[in-house]
Design a protein that fits this description.
This protein is an alpha/beta fold and about 325 residues long. The protein has helices spanning about 5-20, 20-25, 25-30, 115-125, 145-155, 170-190, 195, 210-220, 265-275, 300-310, and strands at about 40-45, 55-60, 70, 75-80, 85-90, 100-105, 110, 130-135, 205-210, 230-235, 250-255, 280-285.
Length: about 325
């Protein structure tokens, strides 16, 4: 695989950004897992993030709006992120396996589901003995005020409002800052592997929705990032060109996902054709954006299955 994604691969990987990505931008906002009264977006102060480490990728230009956070569905979201950070969630040293995971929340590259698809996932991994690092990557700009933000999200669903499909080169350029953030995250964890009791060659990545797209882009075109294993949770499953050394992949998707449930399973077929390890869970129900929310659907069990998969590969046990 060249330093840039093959045009075909990136066109397939990022196709949803043109045809469904606008909807995906609000996926965590419209997939109601909690009581209906929780669906209103309420601005909140930026929460304390005392352990967040600023990554060396610099400030994203072209976004004058300040970083802002809001609460919805009993969870918290960030937007207008212009400076990337990485927050460690380290396991008890007595049960640490040495494995680590970079966690990439979703939100269509316009918001980040920091709690449901970030911190809660990281805490669950740390409880299993896996060092977890939540990546707050840089985002595309949204209106600074909440009414303007809500209006912009509503406009995405207006019939005929979808923009023309961009070409592969434009989509690759769009993801360049986020790929840089992911690469910086891997570099930082490897740099401080001794301090954090992490095996530098046992660092994986898991992403949700847009975070799953970033996980795939990092895997295919992340240069020295080279995840040891990856998790794709309700991301698009279009076929890609698979490198010969592609890592083991875990995939979870609900059949009733309104964005990616009917897009086929080309990604799974690509991994299998390349004879690379892949595990795929297609849940009957769960919608989009279920993450760590407790729901009555079997999709709630995805994390337990992911942990079993990690254990099967030996990542929940110290090496040797």
């Amino acid at each position: 695989m060249t330093k840039r994604l093959h045009a075909f691969a990136i066109a397939q990987l990022l196709r949803p950004l043109a045809i469904a990505g606008s909807a995906c931008a609000a996926a965590t906002l419209v997939a109601a897992p909690a009581a209906a009264q929780d669906d209103k977006m309420v601005p909140i102060a930026i929460p304390a993030q005392p352990n967040a480490i600023t990554l060396a990728t610099g400030k994203l230009p072209g976004n004058p709006a300040p970083e802002a956070w809001h609460r919805q569905y009993g969870s918290v979201f960030a937007r207008n992120v212009t400076v990337a950070t990485l927050t460690p969630f380290l396991p008890d040293p007595g049960k640490a396996s040495g494995a680590a995971v970079i966690v990439a929340p979703g939100g269509g590259f316009r918001t980040l589901s920091m709690e449901n698809e970030g911190w809660d996932v990281a805490r669950a991994l740390a409880a299993k003995g896996v060092a977890a690092f939540v990546l707050k990557y840089r985002l595309n700009p949204t209106p600074a005020d909440m009414p303007g933000f809500e209006k912009s999200m509503t406009a995405m669903f207006t019939p005929g409002a979808r923009p023309p499909r961009p070409n592969a080169g434009a989509m690759a350029a769009t993801l360049a800052p986020q790929i840089a953030d992911a690469r910086a995250a891997f570099a930082l964890v490897r740099q401080r592997a001794g301090e954090w009791h992490v095996d530098a060659d046992r660092i994986g990545m898991i992403g949700f929705s847009a975070g799953a797209m970033l996980t795939m882009a990092t895997t295919l075109d992340g240069g020295d990032a080279k995840p040891a294993f990856i998790g794709n949770i309700y991301g698009p499953l279009a076929a890609v060109t698979v490198p010969a050394d592609a890592p083991p992949m875990f995939v979870a998707l609900a059949a009733d996902d309104p964005f990616f449930g009917n897009g086929g399973f080309g990604l799974i077929d690509s991994w299998r054709t390349a004879k690379r390890p892949v595990e795929f869970h297609l849940f009957e129900q769960g919608g989009h954006g279920f993450g760590m929310y407790p729901k009555t659907t079997t999709s709630t069990g995805w994390f337990d299955e992911f942990a079993r998969w990690m254990d099967m590969h030996g990542w929940l046990k110290p090496r040797g």
